[in-house]
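Input/output pair, single chain:
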Amino acid sequence: MTVQELDEFRRSLRRFIEREVMPFERRPMDLAARENIQHKARAAGFWLLDVPESLGGQGLGLAGMAVFWHEISRTTVVPSRDHSLFGPVTGPILQSLTGDLKQRYLDPVLAGEKVACFAQTEPDAGSDPASMRTRAERKGGRYVLNGVKRFITHADKADFAQVMAVTDATQGARGGISCFLVDMDTPGVRISAKHQTMMGDAPCEIVFEDAEVPAGNMVGKEGGGFALAQRWLAEGRIRHGARACGVAERCLDLALDYTQQRKTFGETLSERQGVQWMLADCFTELHAAKLMVRDAATKLEAGADARAETFMVKIFGDEMGFRVADRCLQLHGGIGLTNELPIEKFWRDQRSFMITEGPTEVLRTALAKLILRGAVS
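Output:
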């Protein structure tokens, strides 16, 4: 999409979100209302945006998806980790399926008949996949899985999981991890716990005890799982940055309105230099994050090595989104602490993103290693 097309897409999507979705920030959305929005999203062309045209989707590239993630994140109605309001969530792993696996897994997901989850994180290997303990041992025409996955979003609703498991412990992350599609009703697979979080969601713990999976359920080649996961995670880091921009923009809009209306000691808050500097800092950091998201998305979409850019966009974006939400909550005073405004929900979600899907400390270390190797220009 050209810059002009992206701008038009943003304007159209923003109108749709503000007209059809944001009103539900103040009232609950039942199933009928959700289906009505989905019907309108289909009609407006906002359905299956990231799915290739060959699979019946819109085939929107990463630059376009960054715009999409930005705009839907300006409201708390769309869950921070689930955009299925605009079509079933697939991702690069499922979209790579062909033949029998496509028919059994991808096609039902696209049809809304099945739901998938992604299972990589473990109790002792959250940010260090090389320490993964879940094993997949080949026995004839099957693999036997044993291990535990933790903090798996939507596992309790999923029909199957995209599971990363060690097939060759001597190779570690460089050729020793494979990806399997595991039906959740497979004997030996069970959800052992749900962790209620401050964000309002409840990711699960999945236990695999001698769970047998057909060898044909491996995605790609043996040992190729880590590369598949990295593509998922790289796109996810751009999603983090784009989401942070949407959150920051909405919080800043609310703060600008409030500080120009709220009077204390004979003047509006916006007339005070201390408040003006807070607003200026919010705007400056938001602008920088927007440029970083656009740069990272463009490079990754073009097939470039954009590891450094995706690390930076998640580090800066997640922290920026939290800082802006925090400042804007402070500017609103007591009303900012209530759920009458979406700021407190944005604040909680953004705080969580500095931990999930790659803690900022781990990404800083990974980025530093690239810098020290001279791999970043």
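The chain has three domains: 3-90, 116-219, 226-372. The radius of gyration is 22 Å.
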